[in-house]
Structure formats: structure tokens, C-alpha cells
Amino acid sequence: MTTILDPSPVHRPDMEGCDKIFRNFEVNSHTDQVRNTYQLMHTHQTVDFVRRKMEQWCKLDHAQMTMLECLEELNNLVDESDPDVDVPNIYHAFQTAESIREKHPDNDWLQLTGLIHDAGKIMAIWGEPQWCVVGDTFPTGCLPAESVVFRHSTFQDNPDMKDPKFNTKLGMYEENCGLDKVLMSWGHDEYMYRVLKGNNATLPEEALYAIRFHSFYPWHGSGDYDYLCNNKDREMLAWVKEFNKFDLYSKADDLPDIDALKPYYQGLIDKYIPGKLRW
Questions:
Q1: DSSP three-state, residue 22
Q2: CB 242 within 8 A of CB 219
Q3: Cβ atoms of residues 89 and 258 within 8 Å
Q4: Is the pLDDT assigned to residue 70 strictly greater than 90?
Q5: Is 184 in a helix, a strand, or coil?
Q6: What residue ranges in the chain does DSSP mark as E strands?
Q7: Of the four listed, 24, 191, 252, 259, which is most buried by Cβ atoms within 10 Å?
Q8: pLDDT in tens, 75-125
Q9: Does the keyword Disulfide bond feature in the UniProt annotation (predicted)?
Q10: What is the Cα–Cα distance from 269 to 109, expressed in whole angstroms?
Q11: What residues contact 76, with CB distance under 8 A and at least 6 apart?
């Protein structure tokens, strides 16, 4: 029997003559590495684990640096969960931002969102294993939805799946409780959101949602977990989807001239998240 690894590989629809398929977890030059990352994630990401990581990281006492300094550190990181790219993450940051800038020239906050959305991956530079930093996120404390990547082959050793408090559709949640009350698997999305909130960033709520949930593919990509959402989540979903088009489809072989782009994006950083930040 063939196991479906990802229910929704994505074709790139916005480039003429481009037949590239994104998020194909089954046929890939580094499939074993990607699968191993998700195996570890789905084994160890429990309610208790996430709570401990939030306690560890949300104090924002690990470093003080500017946003651009953080992005430059990501020149040392290649995302082990991403089947589409094998270049340092800083290139993806500028690719995403420039793609948004082309289509949304008047929304500078959305351009900056594209630039910084993965900056939380700095945790991997500081020693966290990538399985609790990168990759698709999912709610802990309840049964994983069908669209979670490797859903049927990687959760068998997760202790929460043997706990009746957590192994049902709602688990520890109430219906329509709102995503703000959901304990997502720990990763760079939640960490970056906490960094922005903790440093009083002036980005709009739409930007904060896109950053906090851009890796939550089972929700914005497959329509799962709506039963945990409230009306605000549903209103913000359109912006998360809009952002995700650029996060996904900006992955390309042509690498941006980062030095040439830095002055423009430094201006946006100075506008919304200036100076040294607590990480």
C-alpha cells in the first residue's frame, strides 16, 4: 500500500512556462532528510514539550541584535524540512520580500513581513534541533488532522496520542476557541511572533497573523482545524493565504543581490521594528 506523504503538492501557477511543483515530499533529492525531520517533530512535539519551550524562549533573554543582524545569521542555515530549497535561508527572505514588493508596492508592511517571517529560525543557529524550529506546524493537545504531513506514519511514538485528554478531535480545546488559545507545535512562527510582540513592533495585526501561522499548512492550505477558529481567525485567513503565495512561489534558482536590497529594507525595519531587539 502506498502512503500519501503530502496530500497537496502545489504547482506554481504565476510564472509563464513554469511547471515546477512545490511541497512534493514524496519525490525529492533529500526526501530522507525531510522525513526524518518530521519523524522527530511528530514524536517529540507534545503539550508538555511546547510549554517548556515557550517558557525557555519567550523570556527573550537569549540575545540582543537588530533585525538585519539576525537575518545575516541565517546565511548559516539551510532548512532541513523544506523539499523545495537547499540554499541559506537569507536568500528566501529577500526573495519573498521582493516578490511581495512587486505585487504589493504600496503595502510596505507586507514586504517587511516577507523579509522577516522566517527570522525565528535563529533558534537553530543557537542550538535547537531543526525539528522544533522549522517545518509545518500543527496544534498539539488534539488529534492531528488528515492533512498533516506524514500524518499516518510519524505520530505512533508521540505520548500524547496515547492520552485520552489529547487524542480526540477537540482534545483539550473547546470548539471555536480561537487560534490564540491553541498550543501550536513549537517552531519559528510562534517564536518570531513573540519577538515582535515583546519588542512592541508596530506591524499591523495582519502581519502578525501571517508570521504566526504561515507554517500552519493544514489550516491555510487544506482547510482543516476550522472548528478551533473564531471569527477573527477566519477574517485574517485571507491575509495568511495571500502572504503564503509569496512565501511558497518565490522559491527560485535566481538569487537576489542582497547588498543592493539592504538599504530599502533597512528603511522598513527602522519604520516598524527599529534598533536592537530582545531575542
A1: strand
A2: no
A3: no
A4: yes
A5: strand
A6: 10-11, 21-22, 64-65, 277-278
A7: 191
A8: 888 766 555 555 677 888 999 999 999 999 999 999 999 999 999 999 999
A9: no
A10: 9
A11: 88, 125
Closest-CA residue to 135 (of 144, 116, 122, 148): 148
Q: How far apart are CA 160 and CA 167, in angstroms?
A: 7
Surface-to-core class of residue 17, CB atoms within 10 Å of its CB (0-12 exposed, 13-18 middle, 19+ buried): exposed
Q: What is the mean pLDDT of the chain?
A: 88
> Binding site membership for substrate: which residues?
23, 79-81, 121, 135-136, 214-215
Residue keyed to cell 488534539: 142
Q: How far is CA 13 from the centre of its chain?
A: 22
Is the Cβ–Cβ distance between 11 and 22 less than 8 Å? yes
**82-86, 150-154, 157-161: the lowest-pLDDT one:** 82-86
For the record, the C-alpha cell of 44 comes out as 517529540
Contact at 8 Å (CB) between 179 and 229? yes
pLDDT in tens, 211-259: 999 999 999 999 999 999 999 999 999 999 999 999 875 555 578 899 9
pTM: 0.86
Residue 255 DSSP code:
P
Residue type, 232: K
pLDDT score at 141: 98
Q: Is 264 exposed, middle or buried (0-12, 13-18, 19+ CB in 10 A)?
A: middle
Cell of 146: 488528515
Residue 179 confidence (pLDDT): 98
Q: Which residues are annotated binding-site positions?
A: 23, 79-81, 92, 117-118, 121, 135-136, 188, 214-215, 247
CB 169 within 8 A of CB 143: yes
